[in-house]
Amino acid sequence: MRPQTIQALRLRLLSLCILLLTMAYVVSAGKDKPRLISPGDVAAIRAVLERYRTSWLAGDRDAVRACLTQDAVLLPHHGTQPVVGMHAINEFWFPTGSSRTTITRFVQKIDELAGEGTLAYVRGRSEVAWTVEADGKSQDWRNAGNFLAVLKKQADGKWLISHLIWDDPPNERLN
User: Fold this and answer.
1) Does the structure show a pLDDT above 60 at 32?
2) The domain 39-173 is classified under which CATH number: 3.20.20.370, 3.40.630.30, 3.40.50.1220, 3.10.450.50?
């Protein structure tokens, strides 16, 4: 064989090897590609957030807690320390012997919802109004701001809130 023919065969063989390696990479990358959440998951996540919202409006503490994982983390506004786990969440939101607080308005607007596999996040804005009753007196308050919720899909397929952060201005007293 002439040297030019050998050189051409080597070049074709090298090109074929590069093509096969590229195809193998593309095929293997497709197998490892993250699984985006399904439309059914999106609906389930929206349902959890709606159940969370309506549970607050109904004053149903157990239903509020049922929307959270047992190891959930709250990251409150104004630099308040993180609240970690259900026991700490109970003490933060529902302390025994505290004044009575009733949520009178709770609106959530979802601006973004996405995720992969068993993790998702929701970003939006919320507005909350509440009444505090103590010592025979009543005070009305409101606030509005941003929130970010991270949700985890549980082994049974249910989505629950695992992390919740909100950022808003100081509470506004209405009366």
Assistant:
1) no
2) 3.10.450.50
